[in-house]
Amino acid sequence: MKWTALDGGLMGFDRDRGLNILYVDEQTKMLRRRSPRSLQIGLLTPCNLSCSFCYRDRKAPSRLDRGFLVELLQKCDRWGVLEVAFGGGEPLMFDGFAELVEELHATTSLGINVTTNGMLLTREIAARLHGKVGEWRLSVYPDNDWAGTLERLAGEPIGVNWIVTPENVHEVAARVREFRARGARNVLLLGYKGADRRMLLDDTGLSTLRAQLAEIEHERIRLDICWHPQLADLPHLFPRADCGAGDDILVITADRAVQACSFADHRVPFETFEQLQAIYQMMRLARPVANTGGCTRQLFTIAPGKRDVSGRVLDGPGAWTWHARASSNSGTYTIIARFRSEDGAREAEAALDDAYQAHLDYVVEKQDREDYYEATPPLHALAAKYGFEWPKDDGFAWEGDAFADREEADKLEIERFGKHLIVHLGYGQQIGGGGIRKLATALGADAFVDENAAYRVVATATTPKAAAAAHAAMDSVGDDYDDEDYATSPYRVEIVDSNGTRRRGFSGTIGGVGYSADLILALARIKGLTFELHV
């Protein structure tokens, strides 16, 4: 049994049995947490599936390797971390995955858990890592043959992760019974996180979920912590005063950055264990909120007189035991500005493109991995020219390694369309949004939207050639919602020509963000179109 301090209590964990013990008395009141209970690590970016709702770019390089992880996690073990949950991308595609698990199991006391789509999880891998992986978490999708994976891994410690949406909430009881009947030891029900409001459970959906859970109350079910404030009336192991993001858990991404949770929009890069510790203390104090649909951190409360032990609400001293293991859940950025004139948009496009290229040159020349997260001299020079200050920590952080290949980092797309400007980063950690907005404002922009806001772009063709090119562009972009859902889609694009109006709606998932931006970029490059932006 390994023990670690919480705020006001002690927590023990037996990785072989998945046994947790929480101990609280008068003597533990003065204890303060030094480390997260668990780390969720995205081992790599690539995946063998191409789910429309996933933000991962299969070709984007990753910066984690086995040697780095072993050294880091050995230090995290001594720090007090109890478990690590590997995700991705698809973790089984990580070079030396089995060897990584074996080495960590042999040299640390960490519990090791893996979230996978199961497509590459063979009986041989499971047998090799039997007793070393505490629990496999199988993400269930319509096209990943989850039933076959459960059959292959019969007898292994495997649970299921399943996303509940308004479309399937009435199936919860039946699906949980099916998962359990096919061999899942437990089922984790997850809520959608993203900008598409149609994917979130409203009050009616939550009532349906309550009724479904009542039918299967004796099954081994776990609920997404983000539902806790909305489902606080249901039986829970502990009432919760906080979700624990950046406190109980910490997320390490494949590009060596830290997030409070999988859906947080703020990443902090790190290279050393000491930097990781410092970032953790910062996030513990900041309690950041994920600025996306489905985040409920601001709704957590604690009743007067109750005792808060690292987010767990207790009536008083005692000891609690339960069996559970950590799991890992698996951006793209877009800014659109509308200017008062085409000249303003044109000047902003040229100025931003020149500054970004100079920014890349500066970072590559200095070989300093920290610089691309900060405003470099070229960005400060651009700001000075137009009379503002570029925010210090608001550089352009790509998913890749400019130090190995500058072209891998040159991924920022900047296109003017009429009196509008779109800036898009297909995969990365930040887009310099604060600086871009200040530049655009200085040049006469009067409206902005980003991936967290709904918008409608109308492209009107002035020639048959432009109309044909626009329709071809719309046909080339994948994974849309049907026209009948257009009215409720957060990102909407219309093509107007002599034959009428053609509409295309995109979901609020990160995949939808990318596809809608791809279409607007393609239309922006077509001559003979005029544009309107509605926000």
- How many strand elements? 26
The CATH class of the largest domain turns out to be: Alpha Beta
Query: Helix proportion of residues, in percent?
Result: 25-40%
CATH architecture of the largest domain: Alpha-Beta Barrel
Portion of residues in beta strands equals 15-25%
Q: Roughly how many Å apart are the termini?
A: 55 Å
Shape: globular
The biggest sheet amounts to:
10 strands, mixed
The largest sheet has its strands arranged as 10-9-8-7-6-5-4-11-12-13
The chain-level mean pLDDT equals 87
Unreliable stretches, pLDDT < 50, 5 or more residues?
55-60, 399-404, 479-484
Structural class: alpha/beta
- Counted by DSSP, the helix tally is 13
Explain the overall architecture.
The chain has helices spanning 66-79, 97-107, 123-128, 146-152, 172-181, 203-215, 273-286, 342-366, 377-385, 406-409, 433-442, 464-476, 510-524, and strands spanning 2-6, 9-14, 19-24, 38-42, 83-87, 111-116, 135-139, 158-164, 187-191, 221-223, 249-252, 257-259, 268-269, 307-309, 312-314, 318-323, 333-339, 396-398, 412-417, 420-425, 428-431, 445-450, 455-461, 491-497, 500-506, 529-534. The protein is of the alpha/beta class and 535 residues long. Helix 1 runs parallel beside helix 2 (97-107) and helix 8 packs antiparallel against helix 9 (377-385). A hairpin with a 2-residue loop joins strand 19 (412-417) and strand 20 (420-425). The strands form six sheets. It has a ten-stranded mixed beta sheet with strand order 10-9-8-7-6-5-4-11-12-13, with helices on one face. A four-stranded antiparallel beta sheet has the order 1-2-3-16, with no helix packed on it. It contains 13 helices and 26 strands. Residues 55-60, 399-404 and 479-484 have low confidence and may be disordered. It starts with a strand and ends with a strand. The chain folds into three domains: 2-18 and 35-323, TIM Barrel (Alpha-Beta Barrel); 331-450, no CATH class; 454-535, no CATH class.
